[in-house]
């Protein structure tokens, strides 16, 4: 069986399992054979050096044309509601020792 490892950005390595077509002798119906893959996943810090003295890096921006008073945008790339933050950075930070937090867009008080 064939194996492969493919590397994907943001500090993750992964591969997948799949099926590949195979024709015996080059003629006749296509037969499918299963291939295997090696999957390697390693979590790495997203913020390796910026503002590491802070417990959690969170920035706020005041934008006057927002429909909500506060909107949190994901900066850890793990949110299930990306680009909006769903709090996934908490689990990521515990697993990696990172301190990434959301970008907060705030509507100014009138």
Main β-sheet: number of strands, strand sense, barrel status? 3 strands, mixed
Number of strands: 7
Q: Count of DSSP helices?
A: 1
Helix content: under 10%
How much of the sequence is in beta strands?
Answer: 25-35%
Domain Iron-binding zinc finger CDGSH type: 56-95
Keywords: 2Fe-2S, Iron, Iron-sulfur, Metal-binding
Pfam families: zf-CDGSH
GO molecular function, one term: 2 iron, 2 sulfur cluster binding
Architecture overview:
The protein is mostly beta strands and 110 residues long. 8% of the residues lie in helices and 30% in strands. The chain is built from one helix and seven strands; from the N terminus they run ββββββαβ. The protein has one helix at residues 88-96; strands spanning 6-8, 12-14, 18-22, 31-35, 57-62, 70-73, 100-106. The strands form three sheets. It has a three-stranded mixed sheet with strand order 5-7-6. Strand 1 and strand 2 form a beta hairpin. The longest helix has 9 residues, at 88-96. It is flat, with a radius of gyration of 22 Å. It starts with 5 loop residues before the first strand and ends with a strand. It holds the Pfam family zf-CDGSH. InterPro entries: CISD1/2, FeS-contain_CDGSH-typ, MitoNEET_CISD. Residues 56-95 form the Iron-binding zinc finger CDGSH type domain. One of its GO terms (cellular component) is mitochondrial outer membrane. It comes from Actinidia chinensis var. chinensis.
């Amino acid at each position: 069986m064939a194996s492969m490892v493919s590397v994907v950005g943001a500090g993750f390595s992964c591969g997948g399992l799949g099926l590949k077509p195979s024709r015996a002798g080059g003629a006749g119906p296509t037969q499918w054979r299963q291939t295997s893959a090696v999957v390697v996943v390693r979590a790495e810090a997203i913020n390796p050096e910026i503002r590491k003295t802070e417990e959690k890096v969170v920035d706020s921006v005041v934008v006057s044309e927002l429909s909500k008073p506060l909107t949190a945008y994901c900066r850890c790339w793990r949110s299930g509601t990306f680009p909006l933050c769903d709090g996934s950075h908490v689990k990521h930070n515990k697993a990696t020792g990172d301190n990434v937090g959301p970008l907060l867009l705030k509507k100014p008080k009138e």
